[in-house]
C-alpha cells in the first residue's frame, strides 16, 4: 500500500491535535465565569486557530505532490473529493471569520505576539456577534464533516478492509518504512 509522505502524515495528525485543542478551548470558555480566564482561553483558541490556518494552507498548496492514487472511483471518489474540499474550505475560513469577529469586537489579532495583523474592520458589536454566530456554525459544520471523515476511514478499515487508513497512519518504530 502506497503511503502519504511522512511530512504529510505529520501535518495531518498535528492538525488533528490542534483541532481538538481549539474545540476544547472553545467549549471550556463556555463554562467559565471569570472574564480574565475567558479572555485567556480566547487568546489561546485564536492562536491555535491561526496555526491551523497556516498548516491547512500549506497542506492545501502541496496536497497533490506525492499523494497516493485514490482507491475510490465514480460516486465514492466524488464524495471523498467534495468532503475533503469542504474540510479544507472550513479549515481556511473558520480562522479568518474568527479574526474578523475579534476585530469587529475591537480587538487586534497578533500571531504569538510577533506579527500583528492590520485592522480591517472597525468596532461593530452587531457585526461581531453575527461573525461569532457564523464562526460557531462553521465550526459545528467542520466537526460534522470530520465525523463523516472518521466514519469513512473506519468503513474502509473495518468493512472494506482495503488498508486505506494505513496511508495516513503514523509509521510504527524507528525501522518502519514511511
Keywords:
178 residues, mainly alpha, Fumarate Reductase Cytochrome B subunit, two-stranded antiparallel sheet, 4 helices, metal-binding, electron transport, transport, Di-haem_cyt_TM
Blueprint (SSEs and pairs):
Blueprint lengths: L5 H25 L4 H27 L12 H31 L5 E2 L3 E2 L8 H36 L18
Antiparallel strand pairs: 1-2
GO molecular function: electron transfer activity; heme binding; metal ion binding
Subcellular location: Cell membrane
Protein name: Cytochrome b561
Short description:
With 178 residues, the chain is mainly alpha-helical. Helix content is 67%, strand content 2%. The longest helix has 36 residues, at 125-160.
Number of strands: 2
Give the CATH class.
Mainly Alpha
Structural class given helices, strands, pairing? mainly alpha
Which quaternary structure do these chains form?
A: single chain
CATH architecture: Up-down Bundle
The fold-level CATH name is Fumarate Reductase Cytochrome B subunit
Range of helix content: 55-70%
InterPro entries: Cyt_b561_bac/Ni-Hgenase (IPR011577), Cytochrome_b561_oxidase (IPR052168), Di-haem_cyt_TM (IPR016174)
Main location: membrane
GO cellular component, one term: plasma membrane
Subcellular location: Cell membrane
Amino acid at each position: 500500500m502506497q503511503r502519504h509522505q511522512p511530512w504529510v502524515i505529520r501535518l495531518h495528525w498535528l492538525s488533528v491535535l490542534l483541532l481538538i485543542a481549539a474545540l476544547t478551548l472553545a467549549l471550556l470558555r463556555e463554562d467559565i465565569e471569570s472574564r480574565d480566564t475567558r479572555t485567556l482561553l480566547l487568546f489561546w483558541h485564536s492562536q491555535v486557530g491561526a496555526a491551523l490556518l497556516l498548516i491547512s494552507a500549506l497542506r492545501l498548496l502541496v496536497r497533490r505532490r506525492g499523494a497516493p492514487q485514490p482507491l475510490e472511483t465514480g460516486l465514492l471518489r466524488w464524495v471523498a473529493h467534495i468532503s475533503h474540499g469542504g474540510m479544507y474550505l472550513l479549515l481556511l475560513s473558520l480562522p479568518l471569520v474568527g479574526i474578523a469577529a475579534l476585530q469587529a469586537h475591537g480587538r487586534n489579532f497578533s500571531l504569538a505576539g510577533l506579527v500583528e495583523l492590520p485592522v480591517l474592520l472597525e468596532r461593530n458589536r452587531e457585526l461581531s456577534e453575527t461573525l461569532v454566530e457564523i464562526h460557531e456554525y462553521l465550526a459545528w459544520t467542520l466537526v460534522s464533516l470530520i465525523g463523516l471523515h472518521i466514519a469513512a476511514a473506519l468503513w474502509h478499515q473495518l468493512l472494506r478492509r482495503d488498508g486505506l487508513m494505513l496511508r495516513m497512519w503514523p509509521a510504527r518504530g524507528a525501522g518502519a518504512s514511511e
